[in-house]
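ok so dumb question maybe but i'm new to this and my supervisor (M.) told me to 'just get the structure for Zinc-ribbon domain-containing protein' and walked off. so i did the thing. is this what she meant?? sequence i used:
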Amino acid sequence: MNSQKGVNLANKRFGDILADGFKLFFRIYGKIILPLALFQVLIIILDVFILTDFRLYVNSREINYYDLIENLSGDTLPAESDMRSMITFLTLNLTLFFLHQIIRAIVITIAMCSVSSYTYKKYMGEDISVKESFKSLFNKKILIVLLIIGIFLPLTSYLLFIPGIFIFSFFIFLVFTYNMEGKNEENESLIEISDPEEVKVYSMDRSNKDHAKKTYSPIKEARAIGKGAFWKIIGVFVINLSIILSISFLFQSIIIFILDAGPPSLLAEINSWDDPATRNYGMLILYQIFLSIIDIIFAPLFICLLTTLFSSMKAKKNSESQYQRGFYPVGGYYKDEFPKPRQEPYKIHEDVEVSPPSEIDIKDRFYCPYCGFLITTPKKFCPNCGENLSDLIA
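this is what came out, is it supposed to look like this??
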């Protein structure tokens, strides 16, 4: 990425970042919809096979819970057994919600990691195939991403909502940085050295590159890139969620209206798929896919919006790092080739009569009588030429 492109990318406004995200969504939609849709279907399959019985049990307790609420009068305190039933019901609902969210978070994290390299490189104008991006998914560092975003994030959201928001904003860029292996602009520098004959451009030596790769931490990199982008990350998440929920709510309202207006036998048939005696996993999966069709269609939207934000923040971080470095030689690469010249002591001509230095009272700064170097505080030896000045300051 050339410097001018990096500057333009780093200076993009949030509105321009969102516009680029939607453009990227339409441009690469046909390439990434298939893998992301398959992951969405996988969420439904796992949810049906793992949580159907548990969800049926919770729904059966729901009837008793609402009967209990209706029987309570305004001035009557519930009995101890009733309180235990209410707490049990709420705990079961929260547990069901947590299990559903953790399944969803793990699968969606894997899905985002599988296409993150593709979306990023396509946005940056590089050539890459979806197959290559999917191969890069099989990286041992993905366990870090799954642990933080797939497990720890829904756990904190389940216990306390606010910490979950901060964890999400701090580490969501892990889906990009875990697979970069230290290959970023910050690890490479160009140093320009003026020469009477030519301008030489040097790159960082191989040992420094290897050291950068060994010390590369995807967690630190994600945190550094996301620094100062808290509200932008939350904004991307809210915009994506608002679009999907709005369309999904409208779609499901139409479906519910059709089911209510249809024959009672249709609802009875759908409910029979949940009944353990007449359960039909295939129809349950197809029915849930139909209800979740909006989530499947818009599955690539969030990763596209996140890609453009990540690219802008990464360019901003790299430009700030280069500004702070200031194009200086790295790691002593030029010490042998360009040694710092040592200033020679001041030479006194033989035909000039010089009286030996006399003892003087030094209260402030003075100049070295041998080389003329300004000494601000009395010293026994000149910092520049090394001559003995003890006779002067005795």
